[in-house]
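Q: Structure tokens for this one, please.
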Amino acid sequence: MTADRSLPPTPASPSGQEGQTAPLKGVEAIRHALKTMPLSPGVYRMLGSKGEVLYVGKALALKKRVTSYTNVARLPERLRRMVSETVAMEIVTTHTEAEALLLEANYIKRMKPRFNILLRDDKSYPWLMLTDGHPFPQVAKHRGKPVKGASLWGPFASAWAVNQTLNLLQRVFLLRSCTDAVFNSRVRPCLLYQIKRCSGPCVDRISQPEYAQLVEQAREFLSGKDSALREQMGAEMHRAAEAMDFERAAVLRDRIRALAQMQDSSVINPASLHEADVFGIWQEAGQTCIQVFFIRGGRNNGNRSFFPAHAREEEAPDILAAFIAQFYDDKPCPAQVLVNCALPEEALLGEALALKRGRKVEILAPQRGEKRQVLDHAVANARDALHRKLAETAGQAKLLEGVAKVFNLEETPQRIEVYDNSHIMGSHAYGVMIVGGPEGFDRRSYRKFSIKGPVTPGDDFGMMREVLERRFGRALKEAAEGDTSNWPDILLIDGGAGQYSAVRGVLDDLGVTNVCLVGIAKGPDRDAGREWFYTQDQEPFQLDPRDPVLYYLQRLRDEAHRFAITTHRAGRSKTLVRSELDDVPGIGPARKKALLHAFGSARGVKQAGLIELESAAGINRETARAIYGHFHPDWVPE
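A: Here is the predicted structure, written as tokens:
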């Protein structure tokens, strides 16, 4: 699709002193890049002094588009700053402008340049999965990459949305949701069979042809063929009633009722939309919320709010167009995309999405009818979500102002880092850092530190020293290069005078003096609300038990403690499932599973003879000899 074409590095230009050169910057750097820039379609990247990507753009004619940046007087202030920081440019040529648009969206989402409109979406979307390679297929929810040998439907906006559909499939089609391992080990029906959520294929309560019919009906339902399916089930219910098989008729009646619950044609489940995504955008106070509804098979798969990062002067149509291009970078595009405002370069965006989908994609901005009602509903949700966010941000700002007042800070803190650690008598030791700021907990900035050095049981000071040395060792290097974006204003630790003094000593050794260090310790009876605070310029003090600032600092401490505990448990669980087989070269998950199935345990494999290993299913002769030789170092192969 694309052809890489890197521009030569920007040459040095003579400075005032002989033998010394200064790199080009700003307009001069762009003019130099234009000397070798083609007129073909493609994507350009503007780079800063440290090699960071400042901006990514696409163009039908690269040279013409980039030339516009040399006329600084006509640029808005934001782009003037971008041009002034540019020291080099890189380009990638494409065959068409639509390809350039797709590549631009991919680069923006991956590189996150600070002068672009950014989609803040670091979560995966759940899907509904139906396995294909089993006599009795399993229905389950799935996240991540597509699974070979399985059919996927979605995406769904949340786990709650996919769980609703999963529960419906269990009630209507009685498909199993258990794993293959559980399925193979059952000897009697489980609870789901008893409450009529499964047909019991694991214990032969249904034949394979009958189960296959249920699977086919489920596929029709997920594909949107609901009316024909209900007619079929209704006819079957009447036949069962006429044959006086009233129990069978009652089961079919309940299945039809459950199916009808999802077929209510309304604003939430529009009859006129079969496969579409609905985008409603709302702007207020310099911020933007975009609400997305996923419509698949004529049903609403849920909705989600997004708050893209952008400059205050950006207009809604530009934000929405950039958002949609990035949104479909890693997910399939539906047949229709509904928007509540006309988009710039709408035809080009439609062409790019069609190129990605392999079929036509319509971008519609309906003005009346049911589709407009759906859009209005999405816009109303976007407005309400933005109002909630603005209210939360305002409340958070007041809390941070209160924190600044309590600790005598000159400015409101923008980044508060909280540290904690967790271990069991020195084993599985982990330290963590959580971050709070104007928008609440910044979970993307959370960090885990697996303690590398030897830790004496109970030596929390030693663990904290290692964590801080690793954290601020990197931060000091970034600060030396001029990047202080991740430098904390407050460092909060859980502990009293002893912990405070120890951490203060570590920071002094590292040369970190411009951070407000605060220790928070519980009272004599470890009662929440009676915490003592330790700082450098104040005597230890307590806050009023009803002070909102106290509640906020408690939440920060408790979040760090929660994150430390969950990190420690996750690390400990990994070691608990590890066995001696993991140390045998050439043994992967499949062979490990085959060995454990054949011999019951790692100890059984270790004690097995060479002939037994060679006869195990899934283990060839070469692998068997390697396993035997690993556990019997004195053995000499024939």
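A few notes: The longest strand covers residues 427-437. The two ends are 55 Å apart (CA to CA).
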